[in-house]
């Protein structure tokens, strides 16, 4: 079903990035320490939730098969990473304060 709502978080983004790098769901899964089945289910969920697929696959042949991110897949990764960076900038002061509390509490241990 196109348009299902799914959570996009660091794990799915890392999977998309690994697929982009390795050109293979199996190799991407291995590089992230997950099963092929888990990676395939995540990709399938992402593809069905978006208006257009993020990942396309081609079956083998004389040149073998392959997997690639689509324009939508590249956009999802870029937008997620931009949101991540902008969120960090917006929260940096509070993160620094939180880290100072954690560091000062560990100093007394």
Automatic annotation (TrEMBL):
Supply the PANTHER family for this chain: DNA-BINDING TRANSCRIPTIONAL DUAL REGULATOR MODE (PTHR30432:SF1), TRANSCRIPTIONAL REGULATOR MODE (PTHR30432)
Q: Which InterPro entries match?
A: Molybdate_resp_trans_reg, WH-like_DNA-bd_sf, WH_DNA-bd_sf
Native organism:
Comamonas testosteroni (Pseudomonas testosteroni)
Known Gene3D superfamilies for this protein?
Answer: Winged helix-like DNA-binding domain superfamily/Winged helix DNA-binding domain
* Protein name, as recorded: ModE family transcriptional regulator
Give the highest taxon in the source lineage. Answer: Bacteria
């Amino acid at each position: 079903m196109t348009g299902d709502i799914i959570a996009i978080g660091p794990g799915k983004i890392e999977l998309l990035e690994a697929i982009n790098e390795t050109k293979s769901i199996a190799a991407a899964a291995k590089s992230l320490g997950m099963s092929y089945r888990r990676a395939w289910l995540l990709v399938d969920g992402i593809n069905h939730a978006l208006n257009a697929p993020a990942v396309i696959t081609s079956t083998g042949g004389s040149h073998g098969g392959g997997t690639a991110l689509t324009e939508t897949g590249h956009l999802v990764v870029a937008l997620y990473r931009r949101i991540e960076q902008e969120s960090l900038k917006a929260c940096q002061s509070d993160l620094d304060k939180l880290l100072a509390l954690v560091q000062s509490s560990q100093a007394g241990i």
